[in-house]
Amino acid sequence: MTRVVVTGVGALTGMGNHVDAIWESAKQGRSGIAPLTRFDTTNFSAKVASELKDFRLTDYMKVNERHRMDRFTQYAIASAIMAVNDAGILIGEHVDSERIGVWFGTAIGGIESFESGYQDLQKGGYESLYPFATTTVISNMASSQVAIALQARGVNSCTVLSCASGSNAIGDAMRVIQRGEADMMIAGGTEASLTPLGIGAFCAMGAISSNPDPNKACRPFDKNRDGLVMGEGAGALVLESLDSALKRDAYIYGEIVGFGTVSDAYHITSPAPGGEGCVRAMEIAVAQSGLDKKDINYINAHGTSTVYNDRSETQAIKEFFKEQAPHIPISSTKSMTGHMMGAAGAIEAIFTLLTIKTGIIPPTINLQEADPDCDLDYVPNQARETRVNAAISNALGFGGHNTVLVFKAVG
């Protein structure tokens, strides 16, 4: 089977507007969470979020182009351009434009455009709507506009699987290359849901932290956590065959060797008892990788800072890894990025690859008093240096979606 590697990465988070800055913050345990400024939060229980800071859209597109796109699409384009530049490829020169595709995930899509469009409709009827009101909202615009911006004319698709969207997009893109339908793929996830509706819906659900202190609000696996903190941004990876990467002497971050995705078929928000869906996804992904579970020496957890997720994921890791579980370093980088929804899996895949490449495991910050039901090694508060040869990244989404990616070093 065709071996698929990652040769370029690009990212935007509240921790920074470039992978280097984001990774430096991660190593230092510096959070991107701050007071939410996108709108007035007076009547909202949530007061903090991980917003992009000092992001310059004009570095990636002309001013007149941005009006045809929602923020989630703009973020996707920026991350994709960074990833392609990082991979050192010129579409049409290093790869035929018809042999490079795009696969992006998003959980919510153009919610900001939806809200503003509805307000316009209420004020002035349909005649007051922006002519591109439809195309700013629909979820496939991220992958479509990335393709247009980069002239990637191959396979183009969009994954909408809640918080597992970004991870699934990467796994699906890997399979496109393995099937021979493309030579390269630009894959990732994007989200921009820091809006009154986006935040308000999670407040109503009771799933979001009401802690106003940005330095303490997001605390995965901690006894005193009170919910997730939302984030925004995008992550993109350039995937290509190992043969292609070696032929052009590309820098290789790592190899993607396993992809497991299953449904709980249990509940729209709660994970199945014992995290059984996550267990099955790990079983599939590790079996597909050709590795033994004993080869896995790092887990980038979904780790949302909610009671249900943190306990369920801990149970799943224990069930799958058995006696090995207490000895595997695990971290939730959401403690620093916030929960980026459809972008989370892509950003966390990048963190996993950088951990393999550098031997530095980013910490789970704000973990002061562990939940008694969360009793594994979550790398609390300080990064750890150790050799990591193979790792998994978990992504678990509303609707019962469980997605696991397995990465390993290329020797």
Derived from helix and strand composition plus strand pairing, the structural class reads alpha/beta
The CATH superfamily of the largest domain is Thiolase/Chalcone synthase
Indicate the percent of residues in helices.
Answer: 25-40%
- Under the CATH scheme, the architecture of the largest domain is 3-Layer(aba) Sandwich
Strand numbers in spatial order across the main sheet? 5-4-6-7-1-8-14-13-9-10
Broad shape: globular
Q: So what's the CATH class of the largest domain? A: Alpha Beta
Distance separating the two termini: 18 Å
By DSSP, the count of extended strands is 14
Average pLDDT level: 96
- Can you tell me the residue ranges where pLDDT is under 50 for at least 5 consecutive residues? none
The name CATH uses for the topology of the largest domain is Peroxisomal Thiolase, Chain A, domain 1
Binned strand content: 15-25%
Number of helices: 13
Structure, described:
There is one protein chain. The chain folds into two domains: 4-247, Thiolase/Chalcone synthase (Peroxisomal Thiolase, Chain A, domain 1, 3-Layer(aba) Sandwich), CATH 3.40.47; 257-408, Peroxisomal Thiolase, Chain A, domain 1. Helices cover 34% and strands 18% of the residues. It has 13 helices and 14 strands. The strands form three sheets. Strands 5-4-6-7-1-8-14-13-9-10 form a ten-stranded mixed β-sheet, with helices on both faces. A two-stranded antiparallel sheet has the order 2-3. A two-stranded antiparallel ribbon has the order 11-12. The longest helix is centred in the first third of the chain and has 17 residues, at 71-87. It is globular and about 65 Å long.
